[in-house]
Amino acid sequence: MSRGSQTRRAANGRHKGPTPRRRVEPTEPESSGRTTAPKVRRYLFRPTWHKWMGALLLIGGFVLFFACLFNVGGIHKYGGHVWYLVGFAIAASSSWWFGLFDPPL
């Protein structure tokens, strides 16, 4: 073969024949503003031990409230009617353990 046949060019200066293959290095796709973040799993309810703790506080608060209501054991001698508020506060604190104040999903 002659050197002229290997480098034949068309009238516009391009090579005739098949185009050489280009090697493309694999790259990671660029992040764009249109991608969404992966979904984070969030639970509607708290773990089981939280539910047990909330249940114990709720029951304890109700027991203390009704013990004050019926003056069980002469509880009014030891602070009067403040035990109504203490029982109510203990029962109300169980709402956090049940997840009442968690943000919505």
The number of helices is: 3
Query: How many DSSP-defined strands?
Result: 0
| Beta fraction | under 5%
Average pLDDT number: 77
Shape: rod-shaped
Intertermini distance: 75 Å
Topology readout:
Blueprint: H1 3-6, H2 48-69, H3 82-97
Helix pairs in contact: 2-3
Fold and architecture overview:
There is one protein chain. By secondary structure, this protein is mostly helical. The chain has a domain at 48-97. It is built from three helices and no strands. Helix 2 runs antiparallel to helix 3 (82-97).
Q: Tags for this entry?
A:
40% helix; 3 helices; 105 residues; rod-shaped; mainly alpha
Could you write a compact summary of the structure shown?
The protein has 105 residues and is mostly helical. It contains three helices and no strands.
